[in-house]
């Protein structure tokens, strides 16, 4: 994808844009065979046979029957909160994709933002405990970048204060904790199967939960609340996963291990190439009980020691056709629609991280030589901070 250097030491601009991610595509012939089945069925959505088969496969993968599929992660989380009757205040992180907070908004829940911890950018349990009020009903934590939250401390707080513990696990498909898929922590976990995720179903979302009684409720809520042809008891929405989404999800699942091991290689190469670069920081190695999925390559750019701000590096990389992303900047509380919320926590760490974070390209088709070249470009930019 990247042409050879000509004669200068200047690293070459990539021939094609290198984007932060590209979706995994199963072999077209396999997908076409699956489409043939859908054509023959003449069944396209509304709990079709492919969705039912796919649900059974995921149930086996997660070893959990309490699993429901949706057309995207945002609506899955929205319905999860609605189905659990969460009201009042929910303590959550400002360092996430805006969908996490929007799901609260659509349930008329007040988000209470507290700070994150500096290593893995997940909710700081101490800050969570300090923010609890008589109106607090739940904690909504995010396994951001697939880094597991401090789940033991959060579970302890939830138990002591009788709060629901909900995880946005949008980034965490494929992550294992103590050998088990991460979705079984807390009362409920939401996964996103969006095309930009390492595991996807074109678009899609999933809930895993403890309370078996929620299953039927989620089935109704994702289908506009219909209990029968003539009965609607709850104001649900249309959050149904269709058959083509289910087919993609089913086929990509077959390649999950391959996708993760490919990403592991690329992630480790980034780390090897960049770890010694002053001002580029990685999160520490994950604890021994965690098996990572390498969903993202987040690094922190320290302006002082790197010699340039994160934003300048981000802009300069584009000139080399390397398109990184600033996930997650700005913080959610700084978006116009949430700026009015009063906050007691100064969010010191979250603000620093949001100003420094840069996620580097990673996807299965990215070549090792691309990673090496991206790292060379970063080193080159650092040595030439005064050039435009
Ligand atoms: N909670 C968290 C923590 C989340 O991160 C998300 C979603 C959600 C909840 C909600 O789940 P969903 O409702 O989305 O299922 C992307 C995704 O759209 C979004 O799903 C994801 N988080 C977020 C982190 O990233 P953008 O605005 O950055 O997407 P976009 O279109 O700029 O794409 C990113 C890169 O991927 C581009 O460089 C192009 C490339 N791309 C994208 C698509 C869609 C492709 O190569 N092919 C494609 O088909 O939000």
From TrEMBL:
It comes from the Bacteria. CDD domains: AHBA_syn (cd00616). Pfam families: DegT_DnrJ_EryC1. InterPro entries: DegT/StrS_aminotransferase (IPR000653), PyrdxlP-dep_Trfase (IPR015424), PyrdxlP-dep_Trfase_major (IPR015421). The keyword ATP-binding does not apply. The active site is at 197 (proton acceptor). Keywords: Aminotransferase, Pyridoxal phosphate, Transferase. The modification N6-(pyridoxal phosphate)lysine is found at residue 197. GO terms for molecular function: pyridoxal phosphate binding; transaminase activity. GO terms for biological process: polysaccharide biosynthetic process. Belongs to the DegT/DnrJ/EryC1 family. This is DegT/DnrJ/EryC1/StrS aminotransferase.
